[in-house]
Amino acid sequence: MYTAIVILHVVVSLALILIILLQTGKGADIGAVFGGGSSQTLFGSSGPTSFLGKMTAAAAVIFMLTSLFLAYFSGSRPTSSIMKGDIPVQTTPATGGQPALPPLPQGSPAGPGGTAPQAPAPQGTPAAPGK
């Protein structure tokens, strides 16, 4: 049913495009632009509705109905997934208090209570005595 409505919707939308493109505009003469005698009203002659006008109205109604149907039923369709079953969630065991720190490289201070390494002396000045 849903697939048939989608196919109908696509066919009606293409037909609506073609029907609209086949119609001529009101006051389509070039003389109407410059005030020629063929255009007595502002938007062209207001004669009876043509066959293409009736087809446009019918196609527009069908297009709107299929749009509403598809919008309503697309929200209630079950979603499919390629995953079978539940995905196991991997958890890491919690450690007490503080998170683990990465190992320190060689030659670095021992930890928060250790001393910070000294910066090298600038060029041209002697190093500090005692260290």
Which of globular, elongated, flat, extended, rod-shaped describes the shape? elongated
Low-confidence stretches: none
**Residue share in β-strands:** under 5%
Question: Quick check: average pLDDT?
Answer: 73
Q: Separation of termini? A: 87 Å
H and E order: HHH
| Helix/sheet category | mainly alpha
**From the alpha-carbon coordinates, what is the Rg to the nearest angstrom?**
39 Å
Q: How many strands?
A: 0
- The total of helices stands at 3
Biggest sheet layout: none
Helical content (DSSP H or I, runs of 4+) = 25-40%
Describe this protein's structure.
With 131 residues, the protein is an all-alpha fold. It has a domain at 1-25 and 49-75. The chain has helices at residues 2-22, 30-33, 51-74. Helix 1 packs antiparallel against helix 3 (51-74). The N and C termini lie far apart (87 Å). The mean pLDDT is 73.
Task: Give a topology summary.
Blueprint: H1 2-22, H2 30-33, H3 51-74
